[in-house]
Each structure stands twice: as structure tokens, then as C-alpha cells.
Amino acid sequence: MCRFAAFLGILLVSTAVIAADPPARAPAAPTATPAPSTKTATTKPAARPAVKPPAKPATTSTAAKKKAGSKTAASKARNALPPKPLETVELDWRELLPLKQRGRYSPNAPPPVHGYLGEGGPPASQLQNFDVNPTLAEIPVRLPGFIVPVGATANGMVREFFLVPYVGACIHVPPPPPNQMVYVKSAGGISLKSVHEAYWVTGKMRVEQTTTNLGAAAYALDADKIEQYQY
Fold first, then answer.
1. Predicted TM-score of the model (pTM)
2. SS3 18
């Protein structure tokens, strides 16, 4: 009986220990807890690039538009300023010719042309060349030359004349071609003593054809100043 009682006591103690063991299995649940922390770490980096990149192009585009607008405004302001007055350009007769014809230019008068009548023949005819230098249009110039009066004089004053690079010794020397003649008008006029005296004429040049019984000119000018040429 004593042995049976002792065995029974051991059995009861073992049963009590086994019944108390199941609550100790609860710590197995924490093995699943790392999963939420993994999801949170993956979601945060993905959210950042989606917000910041669009903000940068928007700022740059706005700044570029403002800069472009300021450039346009500055350009309009410059264009609104009045143009600077051109300075008077002192010309040589060669410059009245087109660039391609300047190689054949000569400052000397051509020789007289006589027909079978000799000195009693008609005046030499003018070579018709109206090719001009278009860059001279509407600019103030100063040009030396000789004066050939056009029309009648009033009170000894010449108010209309051709300015030419040379004066022939007689009517048989061909006059310069039209692109080497300037038709000049002078409001005040000039008292001309001799056609063999040279003068400086200043005024705004025009590319304009004028024809008279003396010849034709491819340029015209309203004289602002006429000065005797000093050799």
C-alpha cells in the first residue's frame, strides 16, 4: 500500500506539471511580429521620390519664363530708343560705283571724241551707266567736285547744278556717266566764278535719277553746305 500511495503521489505531481506546461508556448507568437516592421520600412522610401521630383521642374520652368520675359522687355526697350544720328561720311568718287566696277575706275577725264567735223562737231555723248552703290542712300555725305550749272541763274546765283569729278576742256570730252554725277539743289545758291573751281558739297545723298538736256545723274542731294575746295 505504501508503494502504491507513493506511485500515486508521483503520478499526481507529474499530471500537475504537464497541465501547467501549455501556457509556456505563448512566446512563439513574437516570431510573426517582425513582418509589420518590414512593410513599414518598404513603404516609406517609395513615398519620397513620388513627391520631390515634380517640384523641381516646376520651379525651373517658372524661373526660365521670368528670365525670357525680362529679356523680351529689355529688347523692346532698346528698340524703342531713337536711332543715333549718322555722322557725315567723306566720299571719294570711286565709292559711288558698285563694288564690281571699282577696278575700272579712273579719276582722269577721258580724251575728247571728234567726228568727221572735228571741233565743229556735236558734243560728245554720255555713257549711260546707272549702276549705283545702294549703301549711300539716305546718309549725309561730303563730296568734292566741279559744278556744272543746270538752267538759268538768278542774280548770278546757281541753285541747281551737277556735281562731277572732272570738267572737260571742251564739249567733245564725254561727260561722266550718271553714276558719277550728282544732281544738287541749293536753297541759298552759290556765286560761281569759274567752272574750273572745285568745291566741297555736304548734304544727304539720295539714289535718284535726274535727266536734263545736259545729261543724267543717278544720285541727287540737297546741299546743306558748299565750300570752296582748298588744294
1. 0.62
2. helix
